[in-house]
Amino acid sequence: QGPDGSWNAAKFSDQCDGKKCVGAGHADNSTGVTGLAVLAFLGTGYTHLSAHGYLPEPRDPRKRIWMRDVVKKALRWLVANQDADGCVGPKVAKAMYNHAIAAAALVEAYGMTEAPYLRGPAQKAIDYLVAARNPGAAWRYTAGSGESDVSVTSWCVMALKSAKESGLDVSAATLHETNGWIKSVTNTNNGNVGYMASSEAGVHVAVPGKNQQYANHEALGAVGMLTRILVDTDRSDPVLALTASCLVQDLPVWNKTRFTNDYYYWYYATLALFQYDGPDSGGTGKLWKPWNDAIRQALQKNMHLKADGCAEGSWDADDRWGFEGGRVYAVAINALTMEVYQRYPNVFGLRASKQRR
Fold this sequence. Notes:
single chain, mainly alpha, two-stranded antiparallel sheet, 2 strands
């Protein structure tokens, strides 16, 4: 974390002591990376109000880094970088990625603490998100661009869902229309989802010269599955079973030489399968258990340890999308994946418990 409270995707290594950590991302993505980092702290229970939780200061072990101070500085930076329209961060080429993730961080921090100073910025961030959506469709890189893609939309849906659960004003129509658009780009024969159109379902999404060597995974199918679950809360939806089957046939495997690492895919598939077949889902667990075993092995066995110096506690950024967010992205999104057990209650379990009462 930088002195200003943010995490710089490209220059995080300025904070390293001694040998510099490698794996820089694009500086333009620093707002989103900061939002992801905040979400990771929140996901394990640390807010700006936490009374406990600290680490020794690496440069002086006699001093403590309190988790509440880390989160507080980051939230202040996000609020300070929100413009009059409600957009968090600069309006760069892929601003909606940054804004959606930052909005989710503000919303979840407010939802966990109900801190009055966060309610206004969180609501403004959600209002901007709603206004930026293409009418009757979803989102792409910039506000109201006229085009929509599933990847940007996934982060927007997560922010809106969190806002709804946090008691902020969110139009139910926005979530349902967005879910309808995602359904329109879904192949209902196999559960695959297209990037911008149904004809692209299952097609390898890559950036030439950056990540075309990486194996293709049904990450967008996982996104579509999760969105259907969160919005429809209908476990009997046959498309869920199709996508779930597809995901468990492509379990997480850490293999850099075969280019199988894809933290984004692992994150969304973990969330979707946990909701669909995890504890309290009403499922059998037959799909969740092999995925859970595989993701734990992939992440827990490949985290850098104390012998690796400044890189301790991190993962290398050389996965399918690491070139975008860098090492901080890798750490934050993998931490969020491992926090799936406590971060979101199971929507099917919640509904069932309400019906029992």
